[in-house]
Amino acid sequence: MFRPKLLFTSLAAIALAACSPQDPQAVTSAAIAKQVILPTYSRWVEADRQLAVSALAYCQGKENLETARADFLHAQKAWAELQPLLIGPLAEGNRSWQVQFWPDKKNLVGRQVEQLVVAQPQIDAAALTKSSVVVQGLSAYEYILFDSNINLADDSQKARYCPLLTAIGERQKQLAEEILASWNSTDGMLAQMSKFPNQRYADSHEAIADVLRVQVTALDTLKKKLGTPMGRQSKGIPQPFQADAWRSESSLKSLAASLSAAQSVWAGVDNKGLRSLLPAEQKPLADKIDAAYAASLKLFNDNQRTLNELLADDAGRTQLNAIYDSLNVVHRLHEGELAKALGVQLGFNANDGD
Amino acid sequence: MMRRQALKLGGLLLSAVTLGGWSLFKQKDRSPLLLSARDDVDGNHFAVGYRLDGTRVFSTQVGQRCHDIINHPTLPIALFVARRPGTESYLINLADGQLLQTLTSLPNRHFYGHAVIHKDGEWLYTTENDTTDPGRGLLGVYRFEGERLIHSGEIPTHGVGPHQVSWMPDGETLVVANGGIRTEAESRVEMNLNAMEPSLVLMQRDGTLLSKETLSQQMNSVRHLGIASDGTILACQQFMGDAHELSELLAIKRPGQPFEPFPVAEPQLRAMGHYTASVAVHSELRLVALTAPRGNRFFVWDLDSGALRLDAPLPDCAGVGAVKDGFVVTSGQGRCRFYDCRQSDLNAKPLDLPSGLWDNHLHVM
């Protein structure tokens, strides 16, 4: 009944393995952090810097609405690409809501923006930081630029929303810069995903487990972002206003950007992604996951219609079902076979606690 | 080999002279014993005991998933309590993991995951659901006859959907966290989210109500408890309201004071994802620790000043318990940690225990 402690499982042995350059999990974790995650965060910072400039230029009459909308879509895409990379500070403390508020079942975004432009007509970024998370991010920005009840061609309406639009642009830029700075700081996320043990990860396996957990959560969220407007949670009755980025009709483009980023974590740069951790005998699984990503991305790329257009007819709904099913295959492969092959236990207290 | 023989000898002594053996079992130079429910990768359920130095004492497969664990004050046995809506709790011999008794709930009753044993070692009280009146909170009363439990009666918890039950330091007064949620037999689906009735109840062992208090938010389910040696009660909550709202997920009742929110700052409240798993109090270091597995976050505050001492990432952390110099925390996903809390900077040390699959609560003795 009693087993002598196995000495080679001691902390020292694990620490030794983790420090060794041969530790494949440490190599992979560091590579994903440096070659996939960090460049994507940097692109997000650049997009938000452009957003801040764009809001100001638009409000000063130096830029037209089409350009302002294009800059928003660029920032929205950069944010969508971060979804499978929400590991560390941006995933903590509900910070992601400060960028995008979804799901928004009760149209809190619209209601709270309308309240805020009355209550604080000259709001700036500092004051916005103290406001509800609902109005701090891209969802509120999108509402102002795209909602059909707002006519920005009318100068008085434009003047009403411009202080908030400018404040959001500035706030998003600051937030993105803060997050990137914390990634690069001493003992920041980049260091914690590269050198083990540290105060976040006891060993490199914990870092890989965290990367996979974030992937699985993101893939599940993509299914929800598509399934909810399709009516999968509402007895088949479509809920187009429950989609994310529905006002700018960029839902499907956002989903495709997120999926593509997830694929880059899987494949990695120079084949240093999660796939590189699978032993040779797991090649059939690796091939299956490669094929699942390719199939799903092809369905997204082949489609030129918006979510609303697809929801409107039978052929479109069939196409959406096919996209949903393809996402589901990717998600299930990560959650099941890949997690098992990598020896990762996805948390069960969080999902099924008491 | 020496250790194995020594432990066998210990086991023999335990069965020969129970009380003497028990004090031997708990001898001071041994690493503390951690008891928990744990799964394997295939989803089978186990009742496990490990020394904090990593030595496995037992791992006994059981039929139903367990939740909290409570040890007998004088015998080397512990009850692994069924997780709601489980109907089987398991009385386990701590020396070798032998299943001594499967305690089955009465018809129209199920366990809620928590229990206490009276200091004299004769009576056990478990939180139970009356499924003929879903959510009506009961304490099942059981009496020890040797190493067996016999159902002896039940008393009301004066609330709905009771969860954790604890002793006040007098060992006579019971504290009950009534979660406020009605659920049916064999179900975890909430029936009354718009009419929840959570409460914190103090009562006597004969069922007499001493006090019943509530927090301001009706959808804030009071679930888990930590009691300091001076009688300070800590309660942690799970909020069933809208995702963007703020909720009072940690609350305190100091001796003679009302039940009120503990002063947790907004960034920490936001980080919890409206869900806490366990709370533990360190009476000597005057600290309170809290796990938030949905937020993947572990927190420690100073009990008296309310100052935040630690806000650390820890994936799927759930079980937490006070040990000599700090807290031990388990995780459903990663390695277990010991947090040394003696210095101003709290440091995490990974423990040499199996990684992941640790269930909601731990019990250290």
From TrEMBL, chain A:
Could you tell me what this protein is called? Imelysin-like domain-containing protein
Residues of the Imelysin-like domain: 37-331
Name where it's found: Cell envelope
Listed A to Z, the keywords are:
Signal
Q: What is the lineage of its organism?
A: Bacteria, Pseudomonadati, Pseudomonadota, Gammaproteobacteria, Pseudomonadales
CDD domains with a match to the protein in the record: Imelysin-like_IPPA
Q: Span of the secretion signal?
A: 1-26
Q: Which Pfam families is this protein grouped with?
A: Peptidase_M75 (PF09375)
Automatic annotation (TrEMBL), chain B:
What name does the UniProt record give this protein?
DUF1513 domain-containing protein
The cross-references to Gene3D superfamilies, in alphabetical order and at most eight, read: YVTN repeat-like/Quinoprotein amine dehydrogenase (2.130.10.10)
